[in-house]
Write a structure and sequence with these properties.
heterodimer; A: 115 residues; mainly beta; four-stranded antiparallel sheet; 0% helix; globular; B: 113 residues
C-alpha cells in the first residue's frame, strides 16, 4: 500500500538493538497518552498507554516514559525486530469540556529496522 | 470478531462530487471519530460523536458532514466544498468517558480524479 508520512523523521536501528522514539506534547493539562503503530496503508494499532499520574509503564518489549516537567514522552522498544518497522505516533488526550476525549496526534516517526 | 470496519478501502471521486465513507463498529462503543491523514502529518480530527444523534466539529470540519443515526455507524460525507479531499481517512471508536484507548479501522484512501 501507499506509504503515509513520506517526509517523516526517520529512526534507523539495527535488528536486535533497542529503539527510542521521542515525542513532545504541548498541553500541560493532558492527562492520558497513547502510542500507536501504523504500518503502510493500514490503520493505527494501539501499543501502550500511560496516565499522567505515572512516570513509566511497561508492556511486552515496550516501555513508555512520561516526563511531565518538560512535556516529553518516549517509547522504548527492546530487541527491535523487522516487524517493528512502521510509523509510530504519540497521542495526547486534551479532553473537551462536556464532550469527553480529544486525542491530538504528533506528526509521527518512521522506524526502519536494518538487517 | 469485534472490530471497526471502514469501506471502501480505495475510493475515487470526480471533482464536484460528494462521496460517503462508511464506518461501522460492533464493539458497543459510544464514541466515534473521523480523522484525516496526509503525508508527513499526524492525524487531524474532522468530526466526532459521543452519543447517537449528536456530533461535534473537530479541527478541520469544513467541507465534511456526518450523521450518527445508529450507535454502530458513523458515515462521513466529503462534499464538493472540500477543496483538497485527497487523503487517507481513518475512523476510530472508543468507550465513552475519559482515558480509554481509541480503536481504528483500516482506513479509506480517497483520491480525486
Amino acid at each position: 500500500g501507499e506509504s503515509v508520512g513520506l517526509h517523516l523523521p526517520t529512526l534507523s536501528v539495527q535488528e536486535g538493538d533497542n529503539s527510542i522514539i521521542n515525542c513532545a506534547y504541548s498541553n500541560s493539562a493532558s492527562d492520558y497518552f497513547i502510542w500507536y503503530k501504523q504500518e503502510s496503508g493500514k490503520g493505527p494499532q494501539f501499543i501502550i498507554d500511560i496516565r499522567s499520574n505515572m512516570d513509566k509503564r511497561q508492556g511486552q518489549r515496550v516501555t513508555v516514559l512520561l516526563n511531565k516537567t518538560v512535556k516529553h514522552l518516549s517509547l522504548q522498544i527492546a530487541a527491535t525486530q523487522p516487524g517493528d518497522s512502521a510509523v509510530y505516533f504519540c497521542a495526547e488526550n486534551r479532553g473537551r469540556k462536556n464532550y469527553g476525549q480529544n486525542f491530538v496526534f504528533g506528526p509521527g516517526t518512521r522506524l526502519s529496522v536494518l538487517p | 470478531d469485534g472490530g471497526i470496519t471502514q469501506s471502501p478501502k480505495y475510493l475515487f471521486r470526480k471533482e464536484g462530487q460528494n462521496v460517503t465513507l462508511s464506518c461501522e463498529q460492533n464493539l458497543n462503543h459510544d464514541a466515534m471519530y473521523w480523522y484525516r491523514q496526509d503525508p508527513g502529518q499526524g492525524l487531524r480530527l474532522i468530526y466526532y460523536s459521543q452519543i447517537v444523534n449528536d456530533f461535534q466539529k473537530g479541527d478541520i470540519a469544513e467541507g465534511y458532514s456526518v450523521s450518527r443515526e445508529k450507535k454502530e455507524s458513523f458515515p462521513l460525507t466529503v462534499t464538493s466544498a472540500q477543496k483538497n479531499p485527497t487523503a487517507f481517512y481513518l475512523c476510530a471508536s472508543n468507550l465513552a468517558g475519559m482515558n480509554t484507548e481509541a480503536f481504528f479501522g483500516q482506513g479509506t484512501r480517497l483520491t480525486v480524479v
